[in-house]
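Our consortium's second objective concerns turning raw sequence data into structural hypotheses that experimental partners can test. To show how far this objective has progressed, the report includes one record in full. It was chosen at random from the queue rather than selected for favorable results. The single chain below, 206 residues long, was entered without modification.
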Amino acid sequence: MGCGEATRTIASRPAPNRRNCCRRFRWRDARRAERVVRQMKTIVSEAISGCSSTSTPYGASPPTSDPWQLINSARDWLQQGRPRAALPSLNKALVEVEQLDHQTAAYAHAKAAIHNELGRVYAMVSELELAEIEFQNAAETATSVPEYRPLHFDITYNLSTVLERKGLTAESCAQLRRTAFIYVDLLAHPAEPPGGYGASGERLSS
């Protein structure tokens, strides 16, 4: 069949019923819209539920002086994608952590974790200079607790990401190489997962 014959054959076929066709597409579009609306309602209701269950009013820190409870409250907000709501808990944690003995690993561990979470907050809102400062503070504080290797892993990876976003490729790669070294060491000598920052992790192997 040549091109001309094919064109004539197509042209000779009856035109589709446009009214029924449009009705069908409108029905499909309506179903799709209803599905999207249901999904949005679910997302919103979950977010509202998270707000009411985590703290009232929005973003308020929980009534505790435990730095780790405050850190975990901030992480809950970050998990929901609400970085600014995490700030009250982290700011309070910075105050409460000073009540710990500054010569202990518990103090350095908690304070480094707070700075790391603050860095995550600023990175999420694209305040990259502040994010870098917080991650650098976290890294410096964590040097006194080398046994908490998952904490170091998290900090160096986050710092590498921020440096890359700032266009500092060489500095980012240097941090990423450190992250890779820690990762290999963690595979060989497992510790607590990064989410817990290695609260019972052993020291680096000599």
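The partners drew two points from this record. The CA atoms of residues 26 and 181 lie 57 Å apart. Residues 18-54 form the longest helix (37 residues). Both points have been shared with the crystallography group to help prioritize constructs.
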